[in-house]
Model the fold of this input.
Amino acid sequence: MISDFQEQAKEIIRRTGDRVTPGRVQALAVLLAEQRAITHHEIEERLLGKLQLDRVTLYRVLEWLSEKGLAHKVASDDRVWRFRANVDVHAHQHAHFKCTCCTKVICLDGLNAAHDWPLPAGYRFQEAELTVKGLCAECA
Amino acid sequence: MISDFQEQAKEIIRRTGDRVTPGRVQALAVLLAEQRAITHHEIEERLLGKLQLDRVTLYRVLEWLSEKGLAHKVASDDRVWRFRANVDVHAHQHAHFKCTCCTKVICLDGLNAAHDWPLPAGYRFQEAELTVKGLCAECA
DNA sequence: AGCTTATTGCAACAAAGTTGCATCTACTAT
DNA sequence: ATAGTAGATGCAACTTTGTTGCAATAAGCT
Done:
């Protein structure tokens, strides 16, 4: 299973034309194996044993994944970025759910934060970030 | 004008039953004088000259204002909390707009992030935080 | 196999916020 | 008015999350 994600990650990264490095492959593999948005810290934990990767390098890898559109960053109220691999045209405009109990974050793919929000005159819309908070099935 | 806000702040604070201290009064007065959500740092700037208040104390005052429901905190993608005085039943459920150019944040009072978001089975809604990003009238 | 340049690791730094504790002060009760 | 007390404040030190500069390394090309 895991090597499956690794191969998948390798192929995705190869297609960007940029270098295929262990750090990028393992980090993306971790994200692919996860159905939810996870923090830098959580990714580090999952890499333990598999690959020793510098903290800073992981930050840079995650930044690179976002830039290349292979993953997306999710802002949260705890000042921590979370990352999730971009699946297909999963694309940009979608909402997130954060459990106020276990802090888990998932993507609400069905919910697209569309651009029909009424803004004051002269304001221009770019994007919307919607985070719904509550309790997940396990914590409820 | 300014002392007007000070008197208003004093009265609001008095009604909580907690102590009316210069830090609380001045901080709330600053928030009342502002129509948008501002950062700890911006509040500190506006207090310069009026009152020398320790960084930590301001953090605690802002926390207290939130707890007492006199102000609300707005999370943002720059990992910085912003605060705004709560006007009337302005209350909780509303959206925010953040200018991607000047980083200014305003409250979209007309837009209430209502609770009809479709969640997965077993999930329980608590609150929603909606941030619309784009350009404000001055930056557009 | 060697070259080139992107990537990595390390150390140091930065911003935002928190904690512990001694000191001070707003309010209360005299 | 004064004194006592719980609650606020100021200071120093710390934490967490993330960033920057730079020398060393290694991925992919020829």
